[in-house]
Amino acid sequence: MDYIKAFLVGGAICGIGQIFIDRTSLTAAKLLTGYVCTGVLLSLLGIYGKLVEFAGAGATVPLTGFGYSLFEGVKKAISENGFIGIFTGGLTATAGGIAAAVVFAFLAALFSKPKAK
User: Fold this and answer.
1) Between 28-44 and 63-81, two packed helices, what is the crossing angle to 10 degrees?
2) What is the mean pLDDT of residues 31-42?
3) Which among 8, 85, 98, 102 would be 20 to 30 A from 112, CA to CA?
């Protein structure tokens, strides 16, 4: 049942993004930034945490989950370190994902050839 919940929630999040791509003039960068900000806002309102409990990876893997991770990291760092946690918490919480993205992008660049447009 966990797989079905993850598939439905993750699919719904991606489906909403596809609708925005098809029906608006939003660029991919604006849409992706909007997803991260939406994850932070829904976390602030206490909604996204409940969605993560329900759907697991279906809610944490899309970019809204990255916003959720940033928010949770900052919240934890503020409670532990005070004001400085605003600046360190998000980076600490998401460092693994950011490092993985950099490494895999580098590996992809090594094994692919750029093509002229």
Assistant:
1) 50
2) 94
3) 98
